[in-house]
Amino acid sequence: MSINILETHRHILQFRLDSDAPTKYIERWTEIKRECENTDNESIVEQIKNNCKLVSNKGLPYLKIHEGGLGGNDNILDKQIRFRMETSFKTDNDIVLRPSNTETQKWNYDELDDIIRSFTKVLNNKMRTECVKGCIEMRNENAFNDDYLDSDSD
User: Fold this and answer.
1) Long-range contacts of range 128-132, CB-CB < 8 Å, 24 or more positions apart?
2) Most CB atoms closer than 10 Å: which of 11, 72, 100, 108?
3) Is the pTM of this model over 0.85?
């Protein structure tokens, strides 16, 4: 049984090119990153879904919003994973996906791990070598509150 992601933390799925990648790979990564972050990402989402092992992830619809991603289009009812959009003020060269829960639909860590594994496979295939790593980054949004440990024990 998998555990739903913590509501007390902000989660992102982060994909990073190896820091010692040669220039030709950096150029290829930049093209792939642009494809993911510039709303033309439906084919990548289909590849992610096709490489997933979990039936729940394979059946996710393409998120038909500006950023694109996985999940239903209803922000109130459907859990979603959105691509971070390309902006000029980012300080990293990562591809980032942002999962969000609703009251009725929650992501669990098995689903996120499956998406990380699948998308890493897709990215390494597009790079034509194994030079991309994926991970879940968690940030406690309430770490400075005195009672932050009590907030997730309901």
Assistant:
1) 128/28, 129/25, 131/17, 131/18, 131/21, 131/25, 132/15, 132/16, 132/17, 132/18, 132/29
2) 11
3) yes
